[in-house]
Amino acid sequence: MDYTFHWRPVWKRLPELIEAGLLTMEVAVLAMLLGIVLGMMLAFIRMSGRRELTWFATTWIETARNTPALLQLFFFGFGLGAFGVHLSPYVIVLCALSFNNAGYLAETFRGGFQAVPDTQVRAARSLGMTWGQTYSRIIIPQVLKIVYHPMTNQMVWSVLMSSLGMLVGFRELSGETQFAASQTFRVFEFFAITAVIYYVIVKLILGGSFLIHWKFFRKGEG
Amino acid sequence: MSESINIAAQSASFFTGFKLNDLWYLAGAAGHTLMIAALAISIGTVFGVFFGWVLSVSRWAGAATLGLVLDMFRSVPLIIQLILFFNFFPIIGLPLNPFAAGTIVLVFYTAALVASVARGGIESVPVTTRKAARSLGLTYWQELFYITFPIGCRSALPAWTGVALGVLKDSALVSVLGYVELLRASQILITRTQQPFIILAIAGAFYFALSFPIARITERLERRWQS
Fold it and tell me: Where are the transmembrane segments (chain A) (predicted)?
């Protein structure tokens, strides 16, 4: 083994890497929020039973779940380019991640809705609540509690998937690392530190998720 | 003006449209994807079940060290792992080709994911069942192989299929190292034909054809076992 590790170039770039790590978190969280909204809509559409709409939602969900995230990313990046739609790397990654998150979350939400008994809807309705009130105050809070852990997992996946942004020229943590590595030729060192940063980000998110769970859902447990 | 026409004519001969032959090329590349995924899943599952068993029996020292290592494989993006190890093997004097490096990383990635699934499967078997088997005279290993694994398999199968399908799709990332599997092949074709939409759609259809049937079969199996 005649390789000398050079860590100094990495330390010099560390502030930039951490800043890029924040960008990673930003895009992952945004994609997650969009994914939750879209996934909720897809779940509702799929449960509504209208044929054309169901077909649309099913296509979305099955495509998101059965093709690689990288392919979806390329689709938003290069595939749309064929129609003259050129998006910035940030938007490409955000769209692809939201698309993917929505597909997975829709199935999660559907399972969650099925776990809440139908009688709850009827009970709330007979108490004089409107549909909107029933769903926003009775059903969805229960569903969110049921699907909280799968949602946390999806959030972690969202962070991990955002690393694919480097392949469409997005300068988040991975893209920044590749850029810095190509300038200094210390590929191993840079990617080792990046791996550590990703580990820390994932742990931060799990910690945050635990705190949110403790704050909102601790009542009525045990 | 005439110059630009000239360039246009040249590029017309340089880029050629999508042909039927290319479909066979993509099908061959899908075979590569299937091969690397099958290798990674089968070897990774063996390791993963072993790790899962270690996690379920060891007290906190063993569980903490192994758990930490496996957790790292789960918490770092696969693409970073691939680039990291691809650049690490030459450092220890073992330069590997993209296929070998990609397979090794995918095996460990699969093992890390399967380990937690296997551990859950093993722990889903009631302790009373295991004790009953032991008191009927089965040795520890007999009990593990004839009682715990078959019962645990049932509860672990859906999660395991999820992992396997995930690895099949994640194997697309090996293209980053330069191994020509389905996604890499589609990129090569895009460079030649300049028709990204149709080629990505076809590549997506190949992935779908590999992944969707397995997902459906498992869903059905799961439903049958539940009822």
Answer: 20-45, 73-99, 190-212
